Amino acid sequence: MRRQEKEAEKAALDATPQVEHPRQITIKKGTHFDSDVDVKDVPEVPSRGSSWNISRPAGGRFLDHDPVFSLGEKYLFLATKRGVHVYSTADSLLVRTLFANPNDTVTSYALSSTNPNHIYVAHSAGDIILWDWTSGGEVLTIPSKWAIRAVTIAKVHRTEYDTIFTIESEKTKNGVRDHIVARHVLWKAAKTTEMSLYRWKRDDPLLFLKVLDGGNVIFAASAKELVVGSDGHHHGDSDDELDPIKFKERYTWREQPSTVDITCLDAEARPRHTDQDVKRSDKLGQMKYNLVYGDAQGSTYIYEDILHKMEQREQNKKLEKSLKPRVDRWHREAVSTVKWSLDSNYVISGGKETVLVLLQLETGKRQNLPHLTSAILSLTVSPKGTSYAVHLADNSVMVLSTSELQPKTNIPGIQSLFTSTTPSLLPQVPTITSLCQVSDDPVDAFGRTPAVNNPHNPNHLLLAVPASQDNSVDINSPAPAPFLQTFDAFTGRHVTRQALSRNLAITANIGPDLTKLKEPNVTHIQISANGQWLSTVEEWTPPAADVDFTVYTKDKVVSEQKRRLETYLKFWRWDQESDQWVLETRVDLPHQSPNNPVANRVFDLVAHPRLTAFATTGQDGVVRLWTPKTRLGDGTVIRGAKGEGAISWRCSHSIELENIPAVGDAGLDFPAVPAPTKAKLAYSNDGSILVATQESSKAYEAGLVHFFDAATGTLKYSEPAMYLGGLIDIGFLGRYFIILSDDLRVWDVVTNKLIYGFKLRIPHKLTPMQKTAMSYLALNVSSNTFAIAVPKTNAGTADMLWGPEDLFSTVTIFNPARPDPIISYDTASPLTALVSLTGTSGFVVLDASAEYRILSPKNSTMSLSSTVNGEPLQIEAVKEEEDIQMEEDDDDAVPGAERGDDEDMVDLMNDEKRVVRPEQLAGIFDNGPSFALPPVHEIFKSVVGLYGKKATA
Amino acid sequence: MAAEVTPLEQVRVPVAPSALTADQKYWASFSSQLLLPSQNSAPIINIYSSSASQYKSASSVTPTSSYIAITTSQRIQLLSPQTLKQVKSITRGGTNSSPYHSAQVRRDGRICILGTDSGQVQTYDTNSRAILKQWDEHKQPVWVTKWHPKDLIGAMSCSDDGTVRLWDLPSEASTWKGYGHRDYVRCGTFLGDGNLIATGSYDQTIRVWDPRIDGGNSEGNTSSRATVMQFKLKAPVEAILALPGGNTLVGAAGEKIAVLDLVAGRPLHSMQNHQKTITSLAVASHVAGIKYPSPVLSLDVVTAGPQKEDRHLCVGTQSGLLSIRTRLTESVMKARKEKEKEMTALMEGKIDEYDQRQQKKKGRGWEKRLRGTKDYIGEGADIIIDGDAGRKRGKKGATWDVALRKLQYGLALDLAVNSGDNIGILTVLTALVHRSALKTALSDRDSHTLKPILKWLNKHIMNMQFIRLKADTAMLVLELYAERIGENLEFDEQIKELHNKVRQSCEVAQSCLGTLGMISLLEADGGSDR
C-alpha cells in the first residue's frame, strides 16, 4: 500500500507542473495517438492449462411449470432449465438437484404414479429420464424422436405400471405438428412402446395436457381449441392395453374451438354421488369430469360434467352448440393459473395482476389474497390439499397453508434481470403498454442488474431486482428494479429482500387509463468499505402520455419527460437488529444542472475503498463527494433510539468538471447548454486519488481524464486523449488505470505510459445504449486482476441480421501488467452483472438467463458450496425419512378402519406442530460464515426454542 | 405472503433552520420574572442558595430548611426557594457596622457564614439570628466565605489582604492560612470533595491550593508550596466556579471566561461573550444571554427536585433590584396548557366537544374504575380479546389514502383539498402523478367541484416549493377546462387570478435573474483582479 501512496504522491508531484504547461500535454498527446498502434485484437487464450476455475452454472429461473409436491408433501420439485431441484418444504432448503445433460434443458417433469420415489423429467432434446430422486440416481432413459413439451403420468386401469402421456412436436415440411403421445413403461421388458394417440391439426401449439381417471379421459388444449379424448366403452383385458393400436383406438376425440385465448387449464374427475346421479350412473358413467380454464382477458370458464354434455349434444342435434360454461370474471389481467381444489368446492385462480382468488362454487363467494407483489405464474394444490405452492414472477415459490393462507415455505431463486430469448407460447392480449413501446428492438430488453459484493459478508451479493418479471409479456425494456435482494452466491441461496424505493406492492399496478405503472429503477448501488453503509441511486420518469399536455409538438415530449425525472440518491445504514438496511438520508435530484433543467441524471456512484464516503457524478458535469456527519440540531447532537448520534449524509465537496462547448448555432445569444451523456468515476486503491471523466454526444475532445485529490477535492492533473470514445467504465488497479471504452486501454499512471490496449470487436449493429448495457469492467484487488465483458455474436452472423438470441458475452480476465489474457470465457447469454468478490480473488458472472458462474483462480479455496453443485449432502437422512413417508403413503392406499384412526391421530399431531417459518431458522443459522456463528449450544437452544414452544391457539 | 398495507408516505418539505436554538428556548422558559427591590436600593453583592449545593455529605444531613441568601451591603435576606418570600433577615445594628460581603447558609440550613468589609468572618444561627462565632484575623475586607462541601464545621474565606484561610467552627483561630496572592483575593471555592481550594485574585492569577500542605507565612514573598497549580490570566479574576466533578474550573477574568482542566493542568477554552467585566458565575445546564436594566453583580441558579432541575434564576444588580425568573416544571406546564385549552373551548362554546375528546383519551371503563364496581376486571387482566385490533389500525390512515387505494382518484383529491392540509394536498398530487392519474382526478368536474382546487392553486402558486407539481396541475386544469372559459363567472374570476399570480411570479423571477446577472458581472470582475 505504501507503494501506491508513493505512486499517488508521485503522480501528484508530476501533475502540478504539467497543468501549468499545456505544451507538455500536447507533446504527450502525440505519443498517445502513436500508441494507438498498440491497440490490437484480444489474443486467443489457450483453453487448456488455465490457472482459473469456472464453476458450473448456478441460480437460474424456475421454469414456468406447475410445482410438484412429493406424495408426503415433504418435498417440492422445482425445475430450472439445468435440472430439477428437490426442496424440503419444512426448511425451504435445497436437498438435491437432478441435473440435466449440460447441453440439454429440462422442459417438463412429473412424479411417477406407481413409485413415489421416481420422477420423470422430459428434456428439450427429447429424452425422458426417470430418476430416483431419493438417491439421485438415473433409473431409465426413454428416448423420443420428437421434442417434448409437457409430461403427465397416469396409471392406466388394470395395469401395474406408469403410462407417460406427452405433448411432442414433430417437425414436418409444413412446420411443427403436435402430437399427444402415450408410452407404457414396462419394467420387466425394460422397453417402452410409443403410441401417438392424436395428431393435432392446427398450427398453434398444444399447450396444456391433463390426463384423468387412469388415462380414461385426456384433456388437451392450445390457445384456441380444446380437445377431449375419452374412452367410453372399451373393456379389454390387460394384454390389450399394451397393444399400441388397441390403446390408440380406445379414445374418441372431440374438438371444441374456443372463442377466447386459453392461458391455463385444469380438469378433475369426480365420482357421482347424488342419488339421482347414482341411479343414472350406468348410463352416464361413474365419473363426471369438470373442466376449468382461464383466458387472456381475465375470465375463468367453468364446465361441469363436460364430457356428458358433449355427448348429449352429439346425440341431440336440437341442443345448442355452445356448452354454456359458468363464467367468472374477476381478474384484471390474464389468468395465469387455475386449479380445482381437492374437494372440488373451490376454483383457485392466480392472475398476472398479483392476486390469488379462491372462488367457492356453491355460493359464488370470492376470497382474495392481494398484494403478492409479483405476478402469479403457476399454482399447485398439494396432494393432501393442505397447502398451495404458488410460483411467482419474481422467481420465487411459496407454499401457503390452505386454511389461513400463511406462508410455510419460501423458496426464492436469484431475482436478477431475466431476458428470455425464446418467445412465450402463451397467448397475449395487446395492451396499451405493449402497443406504445418505446423501442422496437428486442435487443433493448437486455439491461444491467446493479450488483455489489458485501465486504462485511463476502459471500453475499446485493442485487437491485425487479418486483416481477414475466417473460410472457413482450416489452422491449428491462423491468425497473425497486427491490434489493441479498443473495448468497456460494450456497446459491436467497438471504433477504427489501424495498429500496417506492413500489407498487400495495397499490394497483395499472393507471386509470389501464397503462402499466412503472416503479422507480435503481440504477446504481454501492457499499462502503466497512459494509455498514449502502448508497443507491434511483430514477423515475413519468410516462410520455402523462406529460403530453405540456407540449404542442410531440417531439418535445421526451424533453418534458426528462424535466420531470425523479432522481434520488439514498444512503442506507445496516441495522443489526432488524437485519435490514435503514434509510438515513435521501438527496433529491443530486445532479440537477442549474442551467439546463433537462440535465439531471446521475451517471456514476462509487464508494471510497477505505473510508466511509461516496462520490457521484452526473449530467450537470459536477463531481460530488458525500460524507456522513453527525446530525446537529441547535448545536446539540440529535440522538437516535439507542442514544447514538443520528447521522446524515451531506455533500462535502463539489467539483465542476470541464464545460462542454456549446454545439450548434454559435450565433445564438443563449445557445442550449449541452450536457454530458456519460461520466465515470474511480477511486485509486488506497483512496487517495479520485478520477473522473465525462463524455458528450459530440466527441469534442474524447478522453480527457481528471485526477483529483480525494480528500480535498482539488484538481491535481488532467490528461487528454486517454481513450477515444464510447466510454463504458474506468478503474484503478494499483498503479494501473484501466479504461473500457470502444477499446480497452491499460495505463501506467506513474510513468504515464500505455501498457497495452485491445480492440473489442463489439457488434456494430448495437447502439451505444445497448453497448453500455452489456459491457462490464470489474476489478479484483486481491488477485490483482480485472475482468471485462463485452457483447458478441456468433462469428457467422456478424453484422448480418441476427436476433437477441444470437447474442452472448465474452468475459476476459487480465493481469494489468501483462497483455495476454488469463482466461476468456463465453457465456450463453449476455451478462447482466459482473461482480468482483472483495476479499477473495474471483468474479461472479451473472447473465440474462439469471444464471451465474464464479470465476476464481485455482489456488483460491473459494468454490461453489456443495449444495449448489448438488452433492448428495443429506442422502441418508432424506432416504430414511422418505422411506418412512413411503410406508405411510402405502398405508394410505390400504383402506381400513383402524388405519384411518391412526391417520387421524397423525393428522392431529401434525396440526399441533408449530409452523416454523424458514426465515426464523435462517435467522439462527444464517449469521454469516461458519467461524462467526455463536457457540453450538446457543444455536441448539434457539432451535429448540423455535420448535419446542408450546403451540398456541 | 401478501404485503402489508402501509399508509402513503408524505412528501417532504425542506427543513429551514429553526429561528430559536434549544438554549434560547430553554432560557425563554424562565418566565414570570419577579423583581424584588432591596432596602435603600443597595447593590446586591452576592446570592447563594443552599439548595444549590452539588455535593451530598456522607453523614446524612437533611436540610431543615433551605434558603436563598441575598447579600446587600447592610442586610442579609434569606428567601425561601419555594415561596420566594423573605423568611429571615439579618441586619447589623449600630453605627460602626461595616457592609456585609458574602453570606452562605450551610447546607443543613442552620448556620450562615459571612464576611464583612472590616475583615471579620461571622457565623449566625439562622433561627435566632445570634452571632455564634466571630473571627477577626483578616486585616482587610473579606469577600468570600464558603462552607466546606463535606465537612459541616469547615469553612473558607478570602480577603483583600491576599490571604486564604480555613476555619473550624469550634476553634478560635484559622486552621490554615494560604499566602501567595499578591493582590486582593476576590473569589474562591472548594474543589470537588473539599480537599482542594481554588482562588482567584486581582493579581490576575488563579491558584489551586492544597490545605494539607503548609500555606507559608506573610513574610514569604515566594509562593508557598501549598499552591499546587497556578494559572495566569490576562485580567483580574472576578469570579471562579468549580464545575461538578471537580476536574474543571471556570474562571472569569475581565470580559473573558477561561475553562481550565485541572487534571491536565491546562486551559480548555476561552469564551468571550461579554462586553464588560464578568462579575459572577453559576452552573446551569444551558447557556444563554438575558439582558438586565442595570449591571449584574451576582447571580445564582436555584435547583429543585430530585433531578436538580434548574428552577429559579436569581440575578442581583447594582441598582439593588433582585430579579428571579422561574421555570415551570413540565407537569405544571402541561396542566396549565390543558386548563387554557379548556377555557378557550368554554369561551368558544365547544366545551362538549372538548369533553368528548377528553373522554376518548381516558378510554373506556374509567368510570367503572373510579366507582370500583365488581365487573371491572382491572388493568392486569389475563386475556383481552380485541376483535377490532386490525380494523382500528386501518382507520388511522388519512381518508384520501383509503380513496386512493380504492382507485377513487377524484375523491382522494377532493378529500385532500377540503382538509386544507397543504402537505396532504401535495402528497396526494404526487401520488396521483406516480399513478398516472392526475388527469383522471382533475377531469369531469364542474365549476363547483373545481373551485377548491383552483383556490388552493391561487393561494400557493407563488410559493416556490413543489412549483413543478403545482404548475403541472394548473396546466392540466387549463388543458381540460380552457374551452369552458366564459361559461361561469366564478370560474373565470379564478382563472384570471391564476393568470395574474403567474405573471407576477414570472416578473419576480425575472428580476431575480437580472440581479443574479449583475452579481455574476461583479464576480467576473473580481475574478480578473485575482
Describe this structure in words.
The complex is a heterodimer of chains A (953) and B (530). Chain A is of the alpha+beta class and 953 residues long. In chain A, a hairpin with a 4-residue loop joins strand 16 and strand 17. Chain A starts with a helix and ends in a 5-residue tail after the last helix. In chain A, strands 1-53-52-51-50 form a 5-stranded mixed β-sheet, with no helix packed on it. Helix content of chain A is 15%, strand content 39%. Chain A has 15 helices and 60 strands. Chain B has 530 residues and is α+β, with helices and mostly antiparallel strands. Chain B has 3 domains: 300 residues, Methylamine Dehydrogenase, Chain H, CATH 2.130.10.10; 54 residues, no CATH class; 125 residues. Chain B is 30% helix and 27% strand. Chain B is built from 12 helices and 24 strands. In chain B, the strands form 6 sheets. Chain B has a 4-stranded antiparallel β-sheet. Chain B has a 4-stranded antiparallel β-sheet with strand order 2-3-4-5, with no helix packed on it. In chain B, strands 6-7-8-9 form a 4-stranded antiparallel β-sheet, with no helix packed on it. In chain B, strand 19 and strand 20 form a beta hairpin. In chain B, helix 6 packs antiparallel against helix 7, helix 7 packs antiparallel against helix 8 and helix 10 runs parallel beside helix 12. Chain B starts with 21 loop residues before the first helix and ends with a helix. Classes of the chains: A alpha+beta (953), B alpha+beta (530). Chains A and B meet through loops of A and helix 9 and helix 11 of B. Chain A: One of its GO terms (biological process) is positive regulation of transcription by RNA polymerase I. Chain A: This is WD40 repeat-like protein. Chain A: Keywords: Nucleus, Repeat, Ribosome biogenesis, rRNA processing, Transcription, WD repeat. Chain A: GO terms for molecular function: RNA binding. Chain A: It is found in: Nucleus, Nucleolus. Chain B: One of its GO terms (cellular component) is nucleolus.
